[in-house]
Inverse folding.
């Protein structure tokens, strides 16, 4: 996973990035903006931790949230599309899931959906992550950045030789 590679790929296409985060609480955006030159590509991020904010800020369908809950493939896809609109970005990244320790919306801890919406495609991946809360959060951030880099690189036809930016260690104290 390379935040720098994602940013380079987006910049090569002339694309900007917006991020919608739930369980990652800003980690994805922080990882992106830690790369020098990120301001040329990153438009902003929305941390919609509460379910009602996913509808109010990102345009996620309220009926979908009521029926399936926030931890859902379609919710992740709508978050990614919604953050594109909210930030005026070309590419939207989204994370939603259960960091634990308790289940949520009928999903076990470690179940995460990451989504990326570009001008040409939207893709959602379900991740089943193991570990404590901080490990699930870090894994979710890594997962969405990997998906985004793959989709943006595939769209641009370019591969980055920029060294990866490592996610910071997150520990519960």
């Amino acid at each position: 996973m390379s935040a720098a590679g994602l940013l380079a790929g987006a910049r090569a296409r002339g694309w900007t990035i917006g991020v919608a985060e739930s369980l990652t609480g800003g980690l994805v955006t922080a990882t992106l903006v830690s790369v020098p030159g990120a301001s040329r590509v990153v438009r902003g991020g929305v941390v919609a931790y509460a379910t009602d904010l996913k509808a109010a800020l990102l345009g996620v369908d309220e009926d979908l949230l009521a029926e399936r809950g926030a931890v859902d493939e379609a919710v992740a896809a709508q978050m990614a599309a919604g953050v594109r609109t909210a930030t005026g970005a070309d590419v939207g990244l989204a994370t939603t899931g259960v960091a634990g320790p308790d289940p949520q919306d009928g999903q076990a801890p470690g179940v995460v959906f990451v989504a990326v919406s570009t001008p040409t495609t939207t893709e959602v991946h379900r991740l089943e992550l193991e570990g404590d809360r901080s490990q699930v959060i870090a894994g979710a951030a890594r997962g969405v950045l990997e998906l985004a880099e793959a989709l943006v690189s595939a769209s641009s036809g370019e591969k980055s030789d920029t060294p990866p930016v490592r996610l910071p260690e997150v520990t519960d104290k």
Q: What stands out?
A: The first helix runs from residue 3 to 13. The chain has a mean pLDDT of 90. The beta strands are 17-21, 42-47, 91-97, 111-117, 122-128.
